[in-house]
Design brief:
By secondary structure, the protein is mainly α. It is built from 6 helices and 2 strands.
Length: 200
């Protein structure tokens, strides 16, 4: 919940502070230098606002992925008990896909609402998780020639693959982009401070 405002606060404080320091250092070098310095400050604040927002959103998305993974871990223990007398021992692959996509969608939606993520990042996470979890499981069933999938098969597959394996790619991608943006913001701070140092 606090990920987005925290990233915004840090980005605006550091980038904006460095830009203001640079503008103050060139304020005595003439009118055009002062205008250029404060224009750079305004531009830096806009970049910090955008960068902080994106980095905070990516951080919140990482929390969603971690929460969905935790939910699936807990769900594993209930899978063997999902079969009832009214249902056959196995279900078709199309039925399994619909059921597991529905469960995954519910996990993502509930977690996203708690973290107050924007709709586009929720759709992105849902789409990626469908690909790395549900689609891979269905492909594994087809490769093994399973026409009917027993309730415990998903649990066994996740245990064999490792629960974190399907989420590792998503988590790493989100982390990589987040650190890239934070690195660019840090570079902007260094540039502003370096320019201020050489100006004075």
């Amino acid at each position: 919940m606090w990920s987005l405002p925290l990233h915004l606060f840090v980005a605006i404080t550091l980038v904006g502070g460095a830009a203001i320091y640079y503008s103050a250092s060139v304020s005595g070098h003439g009118t055009w230098a002062m205008i250029g310095g404060w224009s750079l400050t305004a531009l830096s604040l806009v970049i910090a606002l955008i960068g902080g927002t994106v980095a905070g959103t990516l951080s919140a998305a990482q929390q969603v992925v971690a929460q969905v993974e935790l939910t699936l871990r807990e769900w594993l223990h209930t899978l063997p008990n999902m079969g009832t007398a009214a249902k056959p021992a196995g279900r078709t692959i199309s039925t399994i896909r619909q059921e597991y996509e529905s469960v995954l969608d519910q996990c993502v939606t509930q977690t996203s609402r708690r973290l107050r993520l924007p709709g586009w990042i929720e759709k992105l996470i849902r789409s990626v998780l469908r690909g790395v979890v549900v689609d891979r499981f269905i492909a594994s069933c087809r490769e093994r020639g399973l026409a009917l999938v027993p309730p415990q098969e998903f649990r066994n597959w996740l245990l064999a693959e490792g629960v974190s394996l399907g989420f590792m790619l998503v988590h790493d991608q989100l982390s990589w982009w987040r650190y890239l943006i934070l690195g660019l913001l840090a570079l902007l701070v260094v540039i502003a401070l370096t320019l201020a140092l050489f100006t004075t």
